[in-house]
Design a protein that fits this description.
The protein is an alpha+beta fold. Helix content is about 30%, strand content about 25%. It has a 5-stranded antiparallel β-sheet. Strands 1, 2, 4 and 5 form a 4-stranded antiparallel β-sheet that branches. Strands 3-12-11 form a 3-stranded antiparallel β-sheet, with no helix packed on it. The chain binds magnesium ion. Magnesium ion binds next to loops.
């Protein structure tokens, strides 16, 4: 069941989204060679608490941290740990905030120091594909319009679009209907209506789209070991069109 949000409810989600947006900007400043992903998680927990929020990931399905940190071939759901980031790595940071009962969810992939041109391009294309998708988030359209735009943008540049994991509706719960695949067919899927709020999140691999889950039962990695990037925002369809709440 899809829960459409009123403009007052979207206003509440906007406040949650702003805390999350600023958290990701704050974490970006902390990312450098030598910092551990566990340290980044501690920064995130403190930041969210200091701003009156709750980290939605902490304890979700038993997840042990406030953010996911997914390095290089890790696609999503990486668990923060003591391993230190090194020059040339890329790290996906995914986080969720609950503020006054309303959720927001967003992710960025950041370079650690100087990274290769091919990793840079992967991150750029992944981010750009999100905005290609958002162009199609408008009243009268269908969900498949967003999905196909994201898929086409990435695949035409030679990248693999992850199939096993998808975006989602969001509101009082982190994961609501509908599922938002990054692949699909324009003109198909649920109607895009005012009040719909989606977490749109392309997960894009340099090589194959296939992924596997590590023995920690969380970390999702590419099947071929090539790098992957993730970019996500919470986006509301309002009377003024698509509004990105976490940017
Ligand atoms: Mg999400």
């Amino acid at each position: 069941m899809i829960n459409l949000k009123s403009s007052a409810e979207i206003g509440m989600m906007r406040k949650s989204g702003l805390v999350l947006r600023d958290l990701l900007l704050y974490l970006e400043e902390k990312i450098r060679p030598g910092v551990s992903t566990k340290k980044l998680d501690e920064f995130a927990y403190d930041y969210i608490k200091r701003h009156g929020g709750t980290p939605s990931f902490l304890g979700y399905g038993g997840f042990p941290a406030s953010i996911c940190t997914s390095v290089d071939e890790a696609v999503v759901h990486g668990i923060p740990g003591h391993k230190r980031l090194e020059e040339g790595m890329i790290v996906g940071i995914d986080a969720g905030v609950i503020l006054n009962g309303w959720q927001s969810d967003a992710a960025r992939t950041f370079p650690v120091g100087e990274v290769s041109e091919e990793k840079r391009r992967l991150m750029d294309v992944t981010r750009e594909s999100f905005f290609e998708g958002v162009k199609h988030f408008k009243e009268g359209g269908r969900l498949g319009d967003i999905s196909e735009a994201i898929q086409e943008y990435n695949e035409s540049r030679g990248y693999g679009v992850v199939r096993d994991l998808v975006g989602h509706g969001i509101g009082r719960k982190m994961h609501e209907d509908p599922a938002v695949p990054n692949f699909g067919v324009a003109g198909h899927g649920v109607k895009l209506q005012r009040g719909l709020v989606l977490a749109i999140e392309p997960m894009v691999n340099m090589g194959t789209w296939k992924v596997i889950t590590l023995d920690d039962e969380w970390t999702c990695v590419t099947a071929d070991g090539k790098p992957s990037a993730h970019y996500e925002n919470t986006v509301a369809l309002t009377e003024n069109g698509a509004e990105i709440l976490t940017l």
